[in-house]
Amino acid sequence: LVASMEQVEETYIMIKPDGVQRGLVGEVISRFEKKGFKLTGLKLFHCPKDLAEEHYKDLKSKSFFPKLIDYITSGPVVCMGWEGIGVVASARKLIGATNPLQAEPGTIRGDLAVQTGRNVVHGSDSPENGKREIALWFKEGELFEWTPVQAPWLT
Ligand code: RTP
């Protein structure tokens, strides 16, 4: 089985305020569902400043950091956990380059966005950060382990 060569991972995907306000929630979720990943957590959430700062702590020294924090806390976001084989890197491919003007057509940012500061979606950049971010954004009881009755493309 080819699938067993890669690890089952989890990643944190977040639809940012621009994605929610532009009505792109269904479109983004749809792309991950159609790819064949498994949804393990999903909520609409207005993020407090301290959580935004913790999430983006590696960018603290960047000049755009204060604007990024203001933006991400400016309205509700959609928080998601997705699980699957190689999901971390695959999600980054589905999302596309950070600058939407450099993102390939066919990717979420390539198809749906123009500005780096309004690039619709976040995705964890490593399996370690996937675990860290899911633990950061979700409380106990908000994540679900479930097995489809018949869906061999998921396992
Ligand atoms: P993300 O964490 O949102 O998936 O984005 P990323 O890994 O592709 O990019 P990263 O470098 O981690 O930056 C995080 C987010 O900060 C905003 N940003 N603004 N020059 C700028 O104004 C600038 N650079 C980055 C973007 O929203 C980026 O997604």
Short description:
This protein is of the alpha+beta class.
Spell out the blueprint of helices and strands.
Layout (H helix, E strand, L loop, with lengths): L7 E8 L1 H5 L3 H11 L2 E8 L3 H7 L9 H8 L4 E9 L1 H9 L12 H5 L8 E3 L3 H11 L18
Antiparallel strand pairs: 1-3, 1-4, 2-3
The protein binds ribavirin triphosphate.
Question: What do these coordinates show?
Answer:
- This protein has 155 residues and is α+β, with helices and mostly antiparallel strands.
- It contains 7 helices and 4 strands.
- It has helices at 17-21, 25-35, 49-55, 65-72, 87-95, 108-112, 127-137; strands at residues 8-15, 38-45, 77-85, 121-123.
- A 4-stranded antiparallel β-sheet has the order 2-3-1-4.
- The longest helix has 11 residues, at 25-35.
- The radius of gyration is 15 Å and the shape is globular.
- It starts with 7 loop residues before the first strand and ends in an 18-residue tail after the last helix.
- The model has no long low-confidence stretch (mean pLDDT 95).
- The protein binds ribavirin triphosphate.
Overview features:
4 strands, 4-stranded antiparallel sheet, 155 residues, alpha+beta, binds ribavirin triphosphate, 7 helices
Q: In order across it, which strands form the biggest sheet?
A: 2-3-1-4
Helix content: 25-40%
Per DSSP, the total helix count is 7
Number of strands: 4
> What hetero molecules are in the model?
ribavirin triphosphate
Segments where pLDDT lies below 50 for 5+ residues? Answer: none
Strand content: 15-25%
Helix-strand pattern: EHHEHHEHHEH
* Main sheet attributes: strand count, strand direction, barrel closure: 4 strands, antiparallel
Structural class: alpha+beta
Average pLDDT for all residues: 95
- Radius of gyration over all CA atoms, rounded: 15 Å
C-alpha geometry? globular
Distance between the termini: 10 Å
Active site: 122
Catalytic activity: a 2'-deoxyribonucleoside 5'-diphosphate + ATP = a 2'-deoxyribonucleoside 5'-triphosphate + ADP; a ribonucleoside 5'-diphosphate + ATP = a ribonucleoside 5'-triphosphate + ADP
GO molecular function: ATP binding; nucleoside diphosphate kinase activity
EC number: 2.7.4.6
